[in-house]
Amino acid sequence: MSESGYEEADVVVIGSGMGGLAAARMPAQFGGKKVLVLEQHYMLGGMTHEFSREERFKFGTGLHYMSGNAGPFLDFMTDGRVQLNPLPDDYDVLHFPDFDFSVRASREKYQARCRSAATGPGIRMGHAHSGPSG
Ligand SMILES: Cc1cc2nc3c(=O)[nH]c(=O)nc-3n(C[C@H](O)[C@H](O)[C@H](O)COP(=O)(O)OP(=O)(O)OC[C@H]3O[C@@H](n4cnc5c(N)ncnc54)[C@H](O)[C@@H]3O)c2cc1C
User: Fold this and answer.
1) Which Pfam families match (predicted)?
2) How many angstroms separate the alpha carbon of residue 54 from the centre of ligand 1?
């Protein structure tokens, strides 16, 4: 055995973001493999981190909400230790040059808003002709 033990790894994963940690856990848990995760940063987690300035302002570096049905996978990855909060309606606003598009949480409301933006004056449009359909 080497001093570091690195030579004994069956699988090497480079990067400890969500992708790397998910990729590392599968062969470790289900394949009984020895997995080595290499991370260049001094903290694990990739873009799941947040940082603060002046101890007042907090900035997420990446993930801040998830859509679709990510809950079961997140449960698996965290052994159920992360709790998800439902998104409120209008949880984000996308700013385009000519209009803003507020994103709704439920699929039905989101689809309805897409339709209305594409066919009508849209949501808070700046110009009568703007929108995904022009
Ligand atoms: C501002 C922003 C907001 C986002 N918001 C959302 C959101 O709300 N919802 C959503 O689903 N997604 C969001 N995303 C996307 C999501 O954060 C990323 O898709 C996801 O975090 C990528 O995970 P990853 O594991 O692939 O990469 P990362 O999290 O980037 O991890 C890569 C890791 O690999 C390490 N690494 C790279 N090269 C090497 C090397 N040569 N040697 C060793 N280590 C290395 C890095 O240091 C890092 O830790 C957002 C992204 C950004 C930038």
Assistant:
1) NAD_binding_8
2) 25
- Give the nearest ligand 1 atom to 67 CA: 11
Percent helix, strand and coil across the chain, each to the nearest 5: 30, 20, 50
Q: What domains are there in the chain, each with its CATH number?
A: 9-85 (3.50.50.60), 87-134 (no CATH)
Ligand 1 pocket, residues with Cβ under 6 angstroms = 14-20, 38-41, 46-47, 62-66
What percent of the chain shows pLDDT beyond 70?
A: 83
3-state secondary structure of 70: coil
pTM of the model: 0.76
Protein residue whose Cα sits closest to atom 34 of ligand 1: 15
How many angstroms separate the CA atoms of 69 and 90, rounded? 19
Q: Which residue has the tokens 């690195």?
A: 6
CA distance 18 to 76: 12
Confidence of residue 121 (pLDDT cuts 50, 70, 90): low
CA of 16 to the centre of ligand 1 (A): 9
